[in-house]
Fold:
Amino acid sequence: MSQQLIDAIADMREGDALALVKEMADSGVKPFVILNDVKAAMDVIGQRYEEGTYFLPELMLAGEMMNQIMAIVKPALAESAEEEHLGKVLIGTVKGDIHDIGKDIVTFMLKVSGFDVLDLGVDVPEQKFVDAIKTFQPQVVGLSGFLTLAFDQMKTTVEAIEKAGLRDQVKIMIGGGQMDEAVKEFVGADAYGKDAMAAVKLAKGWVGG
Structure:
């Protein structure tokens, strides 16, 4: 893990962060290692936001940095991507929550791992998840949320999927800043993924990949 890169991203030093990523990529550091550093930095940024030392502009800048970092590591990730089509994953940040940094990393990692991913975006009402399950027919649904207020909405979303008679057709995983095994039990999901790599592993396990 490169503490230098984590600090550069967390401290909003965009130029330093991008230069470090380029240097690491050029010297053959695996893209997954770089993305793990990005994830660690995003955790720090999220913590500072919760504490009130960072605000929306910092979150937006962090998102921009992440997109630029993704563009740098994408070619290396594409080389290691699996050609086979493993299955479909539906993902979105639940209603009332507009955080998308973690969700975007998970979406990206799932895609390069061979999954067809439909990302519904942020602030997604439960009915939109239900409708998308009917049309997209995924095997896996990922509910993302960063704030504690997402707990109840995740539960509501799982209940809506159940009421629509679709619960047996999908495996549901949750992820985000405040999520853990206890929240998984509360919302009625099948699993909790602590990071993007865990999400990929769960999805592969469920679809037999």
